[in-house]
Every structure is written in C-alpha cells, then in structure tokens.
C-alpha cells in the first residue's frame, strides 16, 4: 500500500487538498506533516497548527507537528530579504520545508510526499513541482505534483474552510513579505501587546481555537460568532513627577497626547474608590487608586476618551497642587478590530456556563484555560443532550462586547 506524507502549511490550504488526495488515492495511507519555519511570530505558528489539527481530525488523518525553527529559516534565507513574493526567497523556503518533509518521510517509511502549498493561488505551481521532485529523488521518494486548484478547487476550499470556521491568515507567515506589502507601515501582526490576551488579538483567538479543538475532540458541536468593534492598543506611555518616571497604567481607549505634555496639578477630587487628579491646562486626568496599581477593565463600551492614567496608592503623597508632571501617550485605534464568541453546544440550551477569552494587558483578569476545559468535560453529557451550553465571550475587558453581541444576535446556531 502506498504511504503518502503531506506537507501542510495551514488548515485553509489543507481542508480541500487532503480530501482530494483521499479521493485520488483511496487505497493509500495518508498522514500530514506541519512544518513552516518561515512563520513569525511563534504564536502564529501554533495558531495555524491548531487549525491544521482540527482539519486533520475532521478527515481522520494523523498529523505530525514539526519543531518551530525560525532561526534556521532566517539563516537560510539570509541575503534574500528583499526578494519579491514568488522570487528566490520563496524557492529556498519551499526547499527547506520539503527537505524536512522528505527526511521525515524517509525515516518513517513513506513512499511519496506532496504539499498543500500547491493549493495556494499565491504560490508558483511549476516552482513547487520542480523543487518537490528534486528533493523527493534525493531521498528515493516520489513527489505527487497535484494541482489542487483545478476544477474549482479554490471555490471548494473556500466553501469548506468557511463551513469549518477556519482561521484565515492575512499573510503567508514570512516577515519580509509582510514588510514589502505594508511598505514601511506599522505591522501589528508581528507584535505582541503586553503579556495577556488582549481583545481582538492573536492570543485571544488562539485561546478560543484551543478550547474549540478540545471540545470537538469530545464530539461536541461548536460555533464561533465573529463580531467587529473598534479596537485600541497602547503603543507607549510616560508619566513623570518632577522629572522622575513613575509606574502607571492607562485607561482603555485613551487618546494620544500631542507630543510631550508638560503641566501642573490643579486640584485633587476624592471619589469613592479613587482620587482624581485634574491638571491646569489640559484635559488629561490621573486616577489615584486606593489600592496598589492595577489595570482597570471597562464596564461598558467606550469609543474614545481624554487620556487617563492610573497610579497606585503608593504615589498618593506625590500629587499636590502645583506638582509638575510630564505626560506622553501614544495609542492606536483600529476600526477593523474583530473578536469572537465560542458556543459549545446549542445556543438555545436553557442553562449556560460562562467564561471569557480576553485579559488585561498584564495578563490579569483572565480565565485559565484548564478551568474552561474542565467545565466542558464535566458538562459533556448535559451539552450533548441540549440541556446546557458553555459560552466563551470575547472582548470582555473593553465593555463586555462579546456578551452584548451574543444576547442581541439572531444567528441560529
């Protein structure tokens, strides 16, 4: 029996290609091999692996996860950083991935290799075919050059990936290709903001996908509700008291200052849980907590606000009328922010176990994934009978947007 090892780069490219291979080679033993050292950052690598694993589980194909080897890729493509898409860097990148696949195939007794890269309309089929055959021959293997795009393959891929609610990446993984596409612009895909799972971030999506993978492995129905919102990211901030930098946080959706703001304290107003510092010339405010410094989530959605900084109770004595302050804040707003709710079970189930997927930037205010997985496992029977559902809401820290969307949506699950 022919044994085929399939190099896989992502779930989207694999969702139809694997089905096509099973159709073309019904008597073959097929396994997957996920290896993409070009992907950056590592969280993106893991996210694409999880979606690949979901696809392989649905089809009944075993898939192997190769180690993340970004350093090896960077060294191999050194000197080709400015090559265009489909240029020499891409050829070398194909060679790295197929070489690793062929090595694994030879070790494990496979006869043939192929790659779902031939599914992507952004890849050069002829280059892949040439590289694939050269690598396969080197290891005494056959390379299956299947053009998955023929006969409506792209349309079938799009339909299947939509049905499976797969994560659609917006770049191949290569940082150099992304730099060229954005032409000097800020590239948020390559940056992690804080130590937590910010609403709308890759880390939040990764949390949801991990939970879904586990729930589906238990045979539970899952559905993701995606929703858009205006997202906000803190790029940098500075607070100095009499020229001395002090620790602080920033309230979500605070606007940027126009350069460095120099002002003095005008008055301090006492409220129930904090003191409010007002300045003489600007609308910037500072909240002094009655407790140690912490970030504060929003109870309801906000779209923009004057800059508000937060300090802990240890700095209360430092703020007096006339105190000199220096403030600088740079934030980014994005009207294309997107998060999602995950519903495990039927939406109309009477009882609901609720969690949320996001955290504050420092990682606080979140839920440990093990608690979510345990709840799903403990309630499996009730979920299957339709008596209970588990819902993980997105974007809680910016005003419970996910829960609001869930409660006011009319999507049939």
UniProtKB/TrEMBL annotation:
EC number of this enzyme: 1.17.99.6
Record-annotated disulphide pairs: 172-174
Keywords: 4Fe-4S, Disulfide bond, Iron, Iron-sulfur, Metal-binding, Oxidoreductase, Queuosine biosynthesis, Redox-active center, tRNA processing
Chain residues that bind [4Fe-4S] cluster: 9-10, 90, 93
SUPFAM superfamilies: Adenine nucleotide alpha hydrolases-like
Pfam families: QueH (PF02677)
Pathway annotation: tRNA modification; tRNA-queuosine biosynthesis
Residues in coiled coil: none
Substrates-to-products reaction catalysed: epoxyqueuosine(34) in tRNA + AH2 = queuosine(34) in tRNA + A + H2O
HAMAP family: QueH (MF_02089)
Role according to the record: Catalyzes the conversion of epoxyqueuosine (oQ) to queuosine (Q), which is a hypermodified base found in the wobble positions of tRNA(Asp), tRNA(Asn), tRNA(His) and tRNA(Tyr).
Family: Belongs to the QueH family.
Designated name of the protein: Epoxyqueuosine reductase QueH
Organism: Persephonella atlantica
Phylogenetic placement of the source organism: Bacteria, Pseudomonadati, Aquificota, Aquificia, Aquificales
């Amino acid at each position: 029996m022919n044994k085929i090892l399939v190099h896989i780069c992502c779930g989207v490219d694999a969702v139809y290609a694997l089905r096509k291979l099973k159709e073309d080679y019904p008597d073959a033993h097929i396994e997957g091999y996920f290896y993409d050292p070009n992907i950056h950052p590592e969280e993106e690598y893991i996210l694409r692996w999880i979606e690949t694993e979901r696809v392989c589980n649905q089809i009944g194909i075993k898939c192997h996860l190769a180690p993340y080897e970004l350093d090896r890729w960077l060294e191999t493509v050194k000197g080709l950083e400015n090559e265009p898409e489909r240029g020499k860097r891409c050829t070398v990148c194909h060679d790295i991935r197929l070489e690793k696949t062929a090595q694994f195939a030879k070790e494990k007794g496979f006869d043939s290799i192929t790659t779902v890269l031939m599914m992507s309309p952004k890849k050069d089929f002829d280059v892949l075919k040439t590289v694939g055959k050269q690598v396969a021959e080197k290891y005494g293997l056959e390379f299956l050059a299947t053009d998955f795009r023929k006969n409506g393959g792209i349309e079938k891929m799009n339909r299947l990936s939509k049905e499976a609610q797969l994560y659609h990446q917006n770049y191949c993984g290569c940082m150099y290709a992304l730099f060229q596409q954005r032409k000097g612009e800020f590239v948020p895909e390559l940056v992690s903001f804080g130590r937590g799972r910010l609403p709308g971030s890759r880390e939040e999506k990764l949390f949801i996908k991990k939970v879904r993978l586990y729930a589906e492995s238990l045979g539970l129905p899952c559905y993701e509700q995606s929703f858009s919102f205006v997202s906000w990211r803190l790029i940098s901030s500075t607070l100095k008291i009499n020229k001395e930098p002090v620790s602080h946080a920033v309230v979500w959706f605070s606007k940027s200052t126009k350069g460095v703001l120099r002002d003095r304290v005008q008055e301090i107003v006492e409220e129930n849980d904090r003191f409010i510092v007002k300045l003489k010339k600007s609308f910037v405010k500072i909240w002094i907590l009655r407790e140690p410094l912490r970030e504060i989530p929003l109870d309801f959605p906000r779209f923009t606000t004057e800059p508000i900084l937060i300090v802990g109770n240890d700095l209360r004595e430092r703020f007096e009328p006339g105190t000199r302050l220096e403030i600088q804040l740079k934030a980014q707003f994005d009207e294309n922010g997107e998060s999602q709710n995950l519903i495990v079970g039927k939406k109309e189930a009477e009882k609901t176990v609720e969690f949320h997927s996001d955290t504050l930037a420092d990682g606080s205010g979140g839920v440990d994934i093990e608690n979510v997985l345990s709840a799903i496992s403990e309630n499996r029977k009730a979920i299957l009978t339709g008596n209970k559902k588990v819902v993980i809401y997105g974007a809680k820290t910016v005003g419970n947007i996910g829960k609001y969307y869930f409660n006011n949506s009319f999507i049939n699950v």
